[in-house]
Amino acid sequence: MATTSIVVVGAGVLGLSTALVLSKHKGLDITVVAKHMPGDFDIEYASPWAGANFFPVGAPGSDLQKFEKATWGELDRICREVPEAGIHFQETKTYGRKKDAGTAVGQWFQELVKEDAWFKDVVPNFRVLPKSELPPDAETGTTFTSVCMNVSVYLPWILGQCVKNGVTIRRGILSHISEAGSYHSSGKADITLNCTGLLASKLGGVMDASVYPGRGQIVVVRNEPGVMVTVSGTDDGDEEATYIMQRAVGGGTVLGGCLQHGSWESQPDPNLAQRIMQRSIDLCPSLVPKTGKVTELSIIRHGVGLRPMRKGGPRVEKEKIDGNWIVHNYGHAGYGYQSGWGSAWEAEKLVLEILKQESVVKAKL
């Protein structure tokens, strides 16, 4: 049986999820090539810095909403059936403040904090919070069951599943997307999957000017509040956010954050870190039940990640570059984990369309 050479460029959550989905098809010989791999911590590599959870933010009718909706079922299944993947269910509370409308964070969380959110029939245990359960400055609130991942476990788990299915994993730095085939054992790529995230803005042949960094800063602590909480904005600045998410299997609790459009700054801002910790305690006192003070937080690390933002949302489409088929799957901002499986299945669909199209062409020849 003839095999098709596939190269997936990028080993973040999108690249690995896409490779795993494709690896379930016979006749595909898949190689993943990436500059950064699970276990690396680099400012260019967003996936290790993520929360990561299911906080749906896609607008109704958007591709992102479609990908998020499709992804929930798989996250739910993995959480129930694959404990070693490092996902657990988590009670979630979201609070909305009218004064945050129009701010960077308010726009980011616009769908998430709605009382009539589109995902109310997707996630379990969704209910609107009564006024008595809201913080003093919040007008709206909801609660539902979500999931949170320990990315230090989840990413290597996906990688391991790829290897189990025969995917080849290689390190490499590409200056142009056409170089992908040189990393395949056959020396060519019949189809290349471009899952390069933020680096899609710099990769030759792609050079997507609509991709830019959305800087996020977090503090990871050992304290366990037992709940995920977020609010639509803060009084500390339009780009500053408050979210708390407790990762599975000892991954610590992530305190965030910010959404700083266009910033490539890789180093944590100590003043912002202090504000993040104080806001988190104010919103979720169960973080520090003994003293109620920042000093009670047991800090594991400070971190900065650059979300691969894209004007117009995620790009999942096929095109020919220099005569070679490319399937793009990037631009998921801070939503890669919560939209990854839906996006991978969309990329899979495009690959199968190409294979069908090429087989028709060959048959005519």
UniProtKB/TrEMBL annotation:
Q: Is Amino-acid biosynthesis a UniProt keyword of this protein?
A: no
Q: Which InterPro entries does the UniProt record give? A: D-amino_acid_oxidase_CS, DAO, FAD-dep_OxRdtase
Residues the record lists as binding D-dopa: 243, 334
One biological process GO term for this chain? D-amino acid catabolic process
UniProt GO cellular component terms: cytoplasm
Q: Does the keyword Lipoprotein apply?
A: no
Describe the family membership recorded for this protein in Swiss-Prot or TrEMBL: Belongs to the DAMOX/DASOX family.
What's the protein called, per UniProt? FAD dependent oxidoreductase
Give the organism, scientific name: Dothidotthia symphoricarpi CBS 119687
